[in-house]
Design brief:
With 187 residues, the chain is α+β, with helices and mostly antiparallel strands. 23% of the residues lie in helices and 36% in strands. The chain contains four helices and nine strands.
């Protein structure tokens, strides 16, 4: 099965992102836009694992804790790797420092299970669209420049989730398998 660990966020933010995407889609018709209902803040992409690794992964993740909730502000639009060579259009996330620590802690508890560490620095974001080429993205890049400070809402999260990803022709479908409270005493 194909697994990842992620934070969820409120439906009000999803609605704001859906409205934004409705405005942006006509600017880049070749983009593969992500469905807002499937969006999440990835902490760790685990990848394909054998079924017998599921319980050890759950056990390892249950040991991840933080002293405070993660606070996130969803703000602005940008591109990976750059605006000149856009491959991914994203919504930025300004977060409390413990978000990066949480991602590192998740990664650390999975290392003994032979789940490799990510080679890149953790950059919290929401993927809005995948772009196959820099061609015909000029209007989207121009619009994004004007939206760098657009505020789409904020969230305060005390739990993360283990998801299963099933790849289909219509796009990936995500299934929440297990939830974990990382702040003691939180509801």
């Amino acid at each position: 099965m194909r697994l990842f660990v992620a934070l969820d966020f409120p439906d009000a933010i999803r609605a704001a992102i859906r409205d934004l995407m409705t405005k942006l889609k006509p600017l880049c018709k070749d983009a593969r836009w992500v469905r807002p209902e499937g969006m999440h803040v990835t902490l760790k992409f685990i990848g394909h694992v054998a079924d017998d690794k599921f319980e050890p992964i759950v056990h390892a993740l249950s040991g991840v804790h933080s002293n405070a909730p993660v606070k996130m502000n969803f703000r602005g639009i940008g591109f990976f790797p750059t605006e000149r060579r856009p491959r991914v259009c994203w919504c930025g996330i300004e977060a409390s420092p413990n978000l990066t620590k949480l991602a590192k802690d998740v990664e650390q508890v999975l290392l003994p299970l032979e789940i490799e560490a990510e080679g890149r620095e953790y950059v919290p974001h929401l993927t809005l669209a995948r772009l196959d080429s820099a061609k015909r993205t000029e209007k989207l890049v121009e619009a994004a420049a004007e939206l760098k400070s657009l505020d789409l809402g904020s969230a305060r999260e005390t739990g993360f989730h283990l998801f299963r990803s099933v790849l289909k022709r219509s796009g990936a479908e995500y299934f929440k398998l297990k939830s974990f409270r990382f702040v003691k005493g939180s509801v």
